Amino acid sequence: MLKLLRLLSAVISPVLMVGRQIAWIALAIMVFVILLQVFTRYVLNDALTWPDEAARFLMLWMTGLMAPSAFRWGGFVAIDTLPQALPRSAALPLTIFLLLASLFVLIAAIGHGHNHTMGFGGNFDSSSLRLPLDWFGYEAVKVKLRYMYASLFVCVILLTVVNVELLLRAVYSLFNPDEELPDLGAPEESLGAD
Questions:
Q1: Where residue 102 falls among pLDDT bands split at 50, 70, 90?
Q2: What is the pLDDT of residues 162-177, one digit of tens each?
Q3: Which of 49, 100, 121, 127 falls between 20 and 30 A from 188, CA-CA?
Q4: Per-residue model confidence as pLDDT tens digits over 15-74
Q5: What is the DSSP track for the chain?
């Protein structure tokens, strides 16, 4: 099981790192787009039509790519008073139960995310977001909403993989309490809601 855990950790760590880098870029572009909208609306008195939807698009992708790392590092708001108050032998089974419950919810969410992205909702075009191909002599193309909804689908898949990793870690720790587990690559500061 330790080999599987190390392999999973070695695969998911760089994927999450790339996701975090893309998320930071999305955040920077989102801030620029919002400031551009504020400038055009209040200084030029001529609001643009696309920045609101572009900022929403970028925010969804930023969230979808950052949430798995936050989950992996314990950065979600969580009530962990009970597991911390329990002895390790009781806290780990409780953690395993909670991770299994989360896994069932995430597996159901994968189906919903896929259906929403590739199904009915994803077939619509954005009302204001277009690829400006007219700058190059082609017709401008409206962005499909499925590219926005895909952030949910990608997020849930990554959350599921992280959940499996955390579940394997908890199960392995239950039976091998003194064994060293692969590093999660968490930042120096705790992300938990202490």
A1: very high
A2: 999 999 999 998 888 7
A3: 100
A4: 999 999 999 999 999 999 999 999 999 999 888 888 899 999 999 999 999 999 999 988
A5: -HHHHHHHHHHHHHHHHHHHHHHHHHHHHHHHHHHHHHHHHHTSS---SSHHHHHHHHHHHHHHHHHHHHHHHT-S----HHHHHS-HHHHHHHHHHHHHHHHHHHHHHHHHHHHHHHSTGGGSEEEEEEE-GGGGTS--EEEETHHHHHHHHHHHHHHHHHHHHHHHHHHHHHH-TTSPPPP----SS--S--
